[in-house]
Target: DUF1553 domain-containing protein
Amino acid sequence: MKSQKTKIFTLAITGLVLTQMYQNCGQMGMGGFETLDMASMNLSMGMEGATDQSHPAQKEVLLPTQKTLVVNREYVADLMREIFTSSATPVPNLEALINQWIINRGAQYGLGCNPYGSYSGRDCGGDISNSNLPITTDDNTVRESFRVQFCENVLGMDQGVNAILEKLTNRATAPTADTIRQVYALFYRGDEASELIVNSLLDLDRALLAKNETPLERWRALALQVCESPGWQLQ
Model:
């Protein structure tokens, strides 16, 4: 009987000791896993930090822009001189108009002047600093206003309109699709007028005819539309 009680007591003590040991191991194990989890987190954060430093955020990319290139004052002056020079009906003060609205406006049209081109230095418009101008300039509002002024001045005279008309072949009294294309070609060298442009100018002519405008005034209006359009200046 005594031996049986001793066995029971021994088993109870042994169970208590084993239970305590398992509890201690569990606490140690949990502590180990917590340490491992923290280490993994730190490693992950460290790797992310290293990645950010190795691959910094890219700067915003600015797309390239292309500026519109337009012909300089020499081209414009030569073209206007060729179109409006006439032996039959000379345009009064044509050279003076070209100088006033084109040659002496180098800052807007581009191309430096030659201070030694003439005794008076007329090419520089009295300002030798114009000799340092760039060959070309960007299109600008002031330039366009000067160009429109030239067109209105030269075509405001009947001689200016007649200078254009004498360069047309198979010209009828009133504008036609063919003669409109010829006027367009005088300014837009190497380009042909599209059907849309031709039809638009024919519509304008019909509107002027409905108002009983004379053929000369109808030609004047068409020539002004083409002369003042900016497209023939594009390089």
Q: What stands out?
A: The CA atoms of residues 100 and 150 lie 8 Å apart. The two ends are 122 Å apart (CA to CA).
